[in-house]
Amino acid sequence: GKLTLLCDAKTDGSFLVHHFLSFYLKANCKVCFVALIQSFSHYNIVGQKLGVSLTMARERGQLVFLEGLKASVDVFFHAHEEPHPLQFLREANAGNLQPLFEFVREALKPVENGEAAWRCPVLLVDDLSLLLSLGVGAVAVLDFVHYCRATVCWELKGNMVVLVHDSGDAEDEENDILLNGLSHQSHLILRTEGLATGFCRDVHGQLRILWRRPSQPTAQRDRSLTYQYKIQDKSVSFFAKGMSPAVL
Amino acid sequence: MAAVATCGTGAGSAGSMAAATSSSDVTSFQRKGPRASGTDSGVPRLVSIAGTRPSVRNGQLLVSTGLPALDQLLGGGLAVGTVLLIEEDKYNIYSPLLFKYFLAEGIINGHTLLVASAKEDPADILQELPAPLLDDNCKKELDEDVYNHKTPESNIKMVGPVSSSRFGHYYDASKRIPQELIEASKWHGFFLPEKISSTFKVEPCSLTHGYIKLLHFIQNIIYEEGFDGSNPQKKQKNILRIGIQNLGSPLWGDDICCTENCDNSHSLTKFLYVLRGLLRTSLSACIITMPTHLIQNKAIIARVTNLSDTVVGLESFIGSERETNPLYKDYHGLIHIRQIPRLNNLICDESDVKDLAFKLKRKLFTIEKQNKKSGVGARQLLETREEHLSSRLLVLTQAERLCMGRRFFTAFHIFNELPCKGDCICLQTCQTR
Where is this region: Disordered (chain B) (predicted)? Predict the structure, then answer.
């Protein structure tokens, strides 16, 4: 039961989301993907490049996909009787994410019949900062993550991967609250940053990996590693700092 | 980009110039022009729509923004289903031009238009669209400029596709579009003061009233005219081009430009999200101009950028100290490509060139790479030392222009008071020997 936090600052860390999605699908885990940023076909096409087929996974029942863009149009223009996962779009003040949590819990519930069950359930969220833009408060988002962690990580022994944008110098206080709160709860933090010196064609950015133990007091230092990366069409190549093939 | 590599041969239509990006290391697939591509996986047979072409990189359907130079910087064009956000320049002089180019391109290609504005009547906006340029006029413009030494020949890099079915067109900003073209086209207008008066029953949901009405209007048009595929008996598929002007300004009823802590600060972001949802599920492309320089809360600008697909910022030199800077005297402003979406792909076509400037010539709007060979450092050097070295600065720019095409940059040794190496062209002008 681990919570992995993906954080990107001044660059796009979505390649990590694609990686984790294909990784868990290939590992035969049951995945619930709350995709708020892009459409299903985008993830599908990239997934095919990485070797998984999202349509087939969805048909098999291995993948439960909540497509935020399509669902938002649905909930905005038509009134629903039962609460929709994105119900907060219709609410005037800071909504709560309880319907969304119910959706996740329903999706990852272990199936009762003794069929070949999938391995540990996984919840992927892309991305949480968007919920702040849609009117949900930072505290509500943290509550949602807490509930999901209690259900997915502790009760169902699964994993969670969430993506948050780091606004950097844009002084987004709510985002900072969210990011700090999640950093303290997570077991693994993957932070992608743009290079400090600016744009480079051969090195797209830097990835900092930080392993944490949030439950134990920090008697030992957390391990951290830094790599630089370049994204290619179907993969990402990592190398140590300064060791880019373009430089050597 | 492969699209750029193919047009190295055609010089005829290069009325505007843009820096060529280096050849893509992904594919060497070269195409002569827009053609139905059946080789890309996942490309539907939608290429029969006029004015669109599939992207070479990811098979996404693209439309032209009306400026072939901008198309090239954005990776071939604007993808259908995405939002192009233009951050307005300070006095809103150049962003309406880009807006009008986009709409004019729609009329020429026969797309349906939806124009929304809170300031001007859409019918008036359509009257002011620029007239399209024919091929031979373009060539004449280019030849004039080259022979008059207005732009050094080495600075001209190849530009948009030279194709017979005309993906991007050039426009004459000084002439108006012929009336019969407007009448032959199909367009819908949303003028906020007209629509806001009618009563509309809607539950309160923290979007300002204007935004709600606009979303319903757009959704109505998309549904009724079948842009989302809901009317299968429609024989000819078409693109809907949506243009929203000055979104976020107080005229729309939004107060994010007035105060820092506003009541419904999520109104604009929610609007953008639902709009993007509408666009993704239909054959439409949207251009939005937004006065981001007026938004007081920086966090909102960051959120709006994250919510839009392509973001282009315009910064004009009018009124700033750069207007008199001899470095920038050829240009009217800077253009920043802030964000390009990664659609159906892990990577996107980011251009290598980051400092781009635009100018509005007598008839054409051009985007050029700045006349500097080295990077940002030299430019900052020049700006800080300007007051001390004003006389030298003039000398510098002449020498620098003479050095065009050479590898080294003479400013460094002049400013740093280093001795001249001897093979520099500044021998005539520099005083450090």
Answer: 25-44
| Residue of chain A whose Cα is closest to the Cα of B22 | A201
Beta bridge partners of B243: B115, B287
Chain A residues with CB-CB distance to B344 below 8 A: 41-42, 45-46
Q: How many Cβ atoms from other residues are within 10 Å of residue A43's Cβ?
A: 25
Beta strand pairing status for A119-126 and A159-166?
Answer: parallel
Give the contacts of A191 (CB within 8 A, at least 6 positions apart): A6, A7, A8, A9, A166, A207, A208, A209, A210
State whether B301 and A233 contact (CB < 8 Å). Answer: no
B135 cis-preceded (ω within 30 degrees of 0): no
> Residues of B with CB below 8 A from A198's CB?
354, 376
Q: Which residue in this structure is represented by tokens 């001899």? A: B326
A192 closest CA partner among A160, A236, A158: A236
Q: What is the pTM of this model?
A: 0.77
List, for chain B, all residue ranges whose pLDDT scores fall below the cut of 50.
1-47, 137-164, 373-412, 414-415, 427-428, 430-433
Residue B5 Rama label (left phi>0; alpha psi -120 to 50; beta): alpha
ipTM for the assembly: 0.90
Q: Do B343 and A42 touch (CB under 8 A)?
A: yes
The DSSP call for residue A150 is I
